[in-house]
Design goal:
InterPro entries: Hypoxia_induced_domain, RCF1
Oligomer: single chain
Protein name: HIG1 domain-containing protein
Mean pLDDT: 76
Pfam families: HIG_1_N
Keywords: Membrane, Mitochondrion, Transmembrane, Transmembrane helix
Radius of gyration: 31 Å
Distance between the termini: 42 Å
Strand content: under 5%
Subcellular location: Mitochondrion membrane
């Protein structure tokens, strides 16, 4: 039969309750996400160009309906220029955000592997 000392090494010597571990609180994650209006106000170029395109299109269609063909033609040409500017702004914004230089709220180079995240004590993966 096993002696008392053999069993004692597997049982705790003191039966004190330890305080539960406090979870890591990420205050940034608790913050409310930006609303649609917040995003428009932070980056107004693309929404402004989209609105301009829609207004020029509407004015061109209205002038065509009322029989002013030359004005309608000029407005449709202006619409093409506004659409080109809108697409250019979208591509430029996507390019800068993709390389981490835009105002996207993420850190630069966010797609690179961060070895410190794996080595930190907060990683419970």
């Amino acid at each position: 039969m096993a002696s008392e000392s053999e069993y004692s090494k597997f049982t705790p010597r003191e039966n004190k309750r330890k305080a539960p571990l406090q979870p890591h609180v990420d205050l940034d994650a608790m913050r409310a996400p930006p609303t649609f209006w917040d995003r428009i106000m932070s980056q107004p170029l693309v929404p402004g160009l989209m609105l301009t395109t829609a207004l020029v299109l509407g004015a061109g269609m209205w002038s065509f309906k009322t029989g002013r063909a030359q004005l309608s033609q000029n407005l449709m040409r202006a619409r093409v220029v506004a659409q080109f500017a809108t697409i250019g702004a979208l591509v430029a914004g996507s390019y800068t955000i993709g390389f981490g230089t835009g105002d996207s709220g993420d850190e630069a180079g966010r797609n690179e592997f961060d070895a410190k995240a794996v080595e930190s004590d907060d990683y419970h993966g």
